Description:
Elements: H1 2-63, H2 76-87, H3 93-121, H4 129-159
Helix pairs in contact: 1-2, 1-4, 3-4
Amino acid sequence: MEDxxxxxxxxxxxxxxxxxxxxxxxxxxxxxxxxKAKTKKANWLTMKTELSIWKRKAEQFKxxxxxxxxxxxxxxxxxxSLMNLIMSGFDKVDEIDRxxxxxxxxxxxxxxLDNIDSFIRAGFKxxxxxxxxxxxxxRVYANEIIRLHPHVIEILxxxx
Length: 160
């Protein structure tokens, strides 16, 4: 009987050490894990914010009769957030495809506004074929942004 208790006494400090090291390891991994979760949420929220701006500006563009308004759609944060999410393991191809399509429309819209601005600066009249063609293309982009908005919001809501 004494041999058994002696054996337990010898193992108790070792077991305590192993348990404390294991607990420290688990707690040490908790903070980075929580940080990653916060970063992911921040990326999704950033994308959602820019999405709302895009929709609002696309609707405004459709209602206005201005060929080349001065505003542009903010696209940098959306793209950076999407890339951050992909690098952190977001791999749902169909969702990435829909988010990218939405981004491409916003980028095309901005490019069209820049083209109209450059035509006007080059001395083209507002009824020039180039400006009207670019404005028509921008109206297509604006319609696509408005049409795709609910589908993309659905993706974002699922991840928030």
